[in-house]
Specification:
Largest sheet: 7 strands, mixed
Structural class: alpha/beta
Shape: globular
Number of domains: 2
CATH topology of the largest domain: Quinone Oxidoreductase, Chain A, domain 1
CATH architecture of the largest domain: Alpha-Beta Complex
Number of strands: 16
CATH superfamily of the largest domain: Medium-chain alcohol dehydrogenases, catalytic domain
Radius of gyration: 19 Å
Distance between the termini: 14 Å
Order of helices and strands: EEEHEEEEEHHEHEHEHEHEHHHEHEHE
Number of helices: 12
Length: 334
Amino acid sequence: MKAFMIERYGDRDGGRVTEAPDPQVGADDVLVRVRAASVNPLDLRIRDGGFKAILPYRLPLVLGNDLAGVVVEVGSDVTRFAVGDEVYARPDKDRIGTFAELIAVHENDLAPKPAGLTMVEAASLPLVALTSWQALVERAQVQPGQKVLIHGGSGGVGTVALQLARRLGAHVATTASAAKADLVRELGADLVVDYRTQDFEEVLDGYDVVLDTLGGATLQKSLRILKPGGKVVSIAGPPDADFARELGANPVLRQAMNALSWRTRRRAKRQGVTYSFLFMKADGGRLGELTRLVDAGDIRPVVDRVFPFERTREAMEYAEKGSARAGKVVVAMG
């Protein structure tokens, strides 16, 4: 099969489409012919070696963390899918590789593709939809009437998180440029802060939840706009000990991750709020529930641009430069 592979970390010009062995299909696996796969910041961080200490992938490595496609083979123990089914997924973190013609995915990580979406649209959703659900519903436990700030409302996670927060009945604020204000309002934002001309810390106060997609100074300011008991859930900030435990990391690595987030957690405690780092998990069952929200019209995909598979590296460069107007960049297999 053809696949987009990197041979070493940190080589931004080194990824290329090449021949790779077809995947091995285990008893619980589903072999999917990939029709489309989307680009995520996670792909860029993996390529650059940002997770090599905690996600020790073998090189050469096929990148890609989202897919939509068609089942072409099932393992002997698979019961939920059959050849010909249209599916989508975020594979488990240990089994990435959706920038390829074929991928073997554990049955539990797959869900039926939303009937009303194209393959391109469906491929844009799994990682960001699961991230939004796990952050807002499972981690933050957002309730109707709560005030929620979602940073980067026009980004991949932001466009879905806005819609989910609205569905949960929250009062939603977001940061975005003035050019994207109409879009994010349409997706669910009640209040838009133009990050180019306004400091959100001076505009917002008394929030219950912040979904931080940016990290750095944005994360530190976010702690200060929360009311006592508020929560920051970050997908871009420093990892914490809970994440290390989820990974099954050794004591040395757990201590190192705890140290990385120590200052942020201390600042949060002083403010009377909490900080947690989220690295989303693959979950086909939950993705199936999100499919129902998509089919009901509560969540819709936002796709910025589609690249052919042969131009996967260009697609990643486009996403990395922040060229996307809003939503996701998708690679179509043709």
